[in-house]
Amino acid sequence: MAAAAGALRRLVRGGPQQGLGRLLQLRSGIHGSAPAAVQVTVRDALNQALDEELERDERVFLLGEEVAQYDGAYKISRGLWKKYGDKRIIDTPISEMGFTGIAVGAAMAGLRPICEFMTFNFSMQAIDQVINSAGKTLYMSAGMVSVPVVFRGPNGASAGVGAQHSQCFAAWYGHCPGLKVVSPWSSEDAKGLLKASVRDDNPVVMLENELMYGVPFEMSEEAQSKDFLVPIGKAKIERQGTHVTLVSHSRSVGHCLEAAAVLVKEGVECEVINLRTIRPMDVESIEASVMKTNHLITVEGGWPQFGVGAEICARMMEGPAFNYLDAPAVRLTGADVPMPYAKILEENCLPQVKDIIFAVKKILNI
Amino acid sequence: MRKMLLAALSRVLQGPAAAARPVSRVVVASRNYADFASEATFDIKKCDLHRLEEGPPVTAVLTREEGLHYYRTMQTIRRMELKSDQLYKQKIIRGFCHLYDGQEACCVGLEAGIKPTDHLITAYRAHGYAYTRGTSVREILAELTGRKGGCAKGKGGSMHMYAQNFYGGNGIVGAQVPLGAGIALACKYFGKDEICLTLYGDGAANQGQIFETYNMAALWKLPCIFICENNRYGMGTSVERAAASTDYYKRGDYIPGIRVDGMDILCVREATKFAAEHCRSGKGPMLMELQTYRYHGHSMSDPGISYRTREEIQEVRSKSDPITLLKDRMVNNSLSSVEELKEIDVEVRKEIEEAAQFATTDPEPPLEELGNHIYKNEPPFEVRGPSLWLKYKSVG
Fold it and tell me: Fewest Cβ atoms closer than 10 Å to its Cβ: which of B35, B72, B223, B372?
């Protein structure tokens, strides 16, 4: 019983596992009947997280455009205004710089705001408040003034929304000391990371993905609990492997798993790492994996130059994993162009499953 | 004649142990009830009003204690800023240094109109506010000289000083205004009857984010007093060259506003009390424009005479200096004497000298602390230095 419980803990915390099927197997093994895991979309997982944290701590509140009476532009905050009212769920005018500054000031004065950007593209209007007011204040004040604020919203490409609505900001915010930056993929990630972010006493940027909102995932019983947290700063090995390490975050994690499922038929076992946190990045997990597989491919939706993959490659050069690489590390990224509208163009501006498969075969020389 | 007799009397009263006692205390003790009034009433300039039927009162009562306190505080700030000027020219203070001399009536008057439990945020011309909000001169000067005894342990510098209920010290022009409204939102949220004073200059008044903030503060009735310290110049650009409308107290549009003589501390105090009352009663934000003046240039790298004349500076100094105005009022109305105020000057000078001594001898922060205060409540971790071999420990 203890062993099974231990195994379950490892599964949830990111220990070695081989996919969600295994999770279900073990669950039925322990209880002997239908698993207590349920299918939960990322959207609902986020909604649950918001509801639980609002209930838990009076100081938590949500502000942003359309979060209240519209139930959220992407329905993430559905039902919350009805439940918590005007004081806790605040509709703002279209004034990003203004309301972001207000959120940061409120955090400085002891509240715990969640500031929603309808998409992170609009956060550019407010980026000074995120970086200069939120990110740097604890340091400048030598610890006197802390800023427990969460900035969240959809990041990166969507579907056919054009260049100005498709940018990935992982590298932008990941660049800045003082901020924490998280990027969930699954429902478990979304719920656990949002809860952890709200409870964190530092400014956290949470980069969600619009295309993931409607995707259902199995949520274990533990993940359904009100105190389920995913630790910030720890990556998760979604799939164990031996031949190549695929490191990714957000939606691309799914593509890596799909590519791995195809490659396994050809005898290639990919290890898929879900970063979960961009900053502080769990470099140790990547290093340990690369030292095992000797091959590294990073996959992301953002632009190539100065991106997340670029950082990972640089860190591999500087650490023990370098001597274990049998081939140069490779990055798969968004194409180095503003995102076009036409479907065929847009599809080819992001790393697809076939691109990942191609890259794996290329570096493994098969 | 009376002065001579009293001087003689005080010498007699002093006795042999006089050398140990501070002179001022003896003089005050011998002169207090006999010669000084306990308070006086003054006419103050009527404020221009925007969307208000009534404004602050046109008279103000100043007690002797208040007067002495305001005088000492303003003089302390004045001398502290002049000392900073000196230290900057000696290259002991580096980087940016925006001095507040000339504007003392603003920070001291504002503080006199609110409670210590109220909140205040301003931009980078912040040394005066750091002082009135409770930071010692020692800690301010040591922060300017970048020493570990500085109020931010040398990590912040001139533009980033903080204290209880004082949120800096902010370097990005205008960014502090939404922050201030956020603090006001927290005041309303917590329901403790506190307000936030949110300051900005005539230059910042043209920032878009300020208008975004006016809108939300009015919409949500935030207990926020927006305060424009109009010292006539945004860096080197006079108000006429920067703003289509220089009636800064009207630019909140739907937000009621008052324009205040920022060189008269009583005017500032009464206006602040008036605005604070408005906010505390739940009526929403108010806007105060304080008409003031800075003697120094924009910062220490600006001589301040390419865009304004020396004559103008001289005229303000001779006709409107806030410390002189208060001094004249007090002396002419028997609230104090020239000698008593001179003694305060001497004490202040001494305090500043000692603080400067500390600020120039205290050691710089240790290198080991370079990585600290990145995250709060985080187990210690490593921070990268300029190369992969240089790492610093970070504790929150």
Answer: B35
What pLDDT, on the 0 to 100 scale, is given for residue B28?
A: 47
- CB-based contact, A345 to chain B, within 8 Å: no
Active site residue A175: no
pLDDT in tens, A66-97: 999 999 999 999 999 999 999 999 999 999 99
Provide the number of CB pairs (under 8 Å) joining chain A to chain B.
Answer: 145
Q: Stretch A342-361: mean pLDDT, rounded?
A: 98
The residue whose two tokens read 């040398």 is: B154
**Cβ <8 Å between B172 and A133:** yes
**With the CA atoms of B207, B213, B214 and B216 taken in that order, what torsion angle do they form, in degrees rounded to the nearest 10?**
150
Q: What is the pLDDT of residues B234-279, one digit of tens each?
A: 999 999 999 999 999 999 999 999 999 999 999 999 999 999 999 9
Residue carrying the six token digits 């039927």: B53
E-strand stretches of chain A: 38-41, 60-64, 89-91, 112-116, 150-154, 180-182, 204-208, 216-219, 236-239, 244-248, 270-274, 277-279, 296-299, 330-332
**B155, B176, B177, B374, best to mutate vs chain A, most A CBs in 10 Å:** B374
Structural domains of chain B, with CATH: 43-365 (3.40.50.970), 368-395 (no CATH)
| CATH for the stretch A236-364 | 3.40.50.920
Question: Which has the minimum average pLDDT: A243-252, A299-308, B17-26, B278-287?
Answer: B17-26
- Report pTM: 0.91
CATH of domain A40-224: 3.40.50.970
| Closest Cα in chain B to A135 | B374
pLDDT, residue A262, reads 98
Q: Which of A192, A208, A285 is nearest to A251 (CA)?
A: A208
Q: Among B190, B220, B376, select the one facing A202 at the smallest CB separation.
A: B376
Cβ–Cβ gap B178/A104 under 8 Å: yes
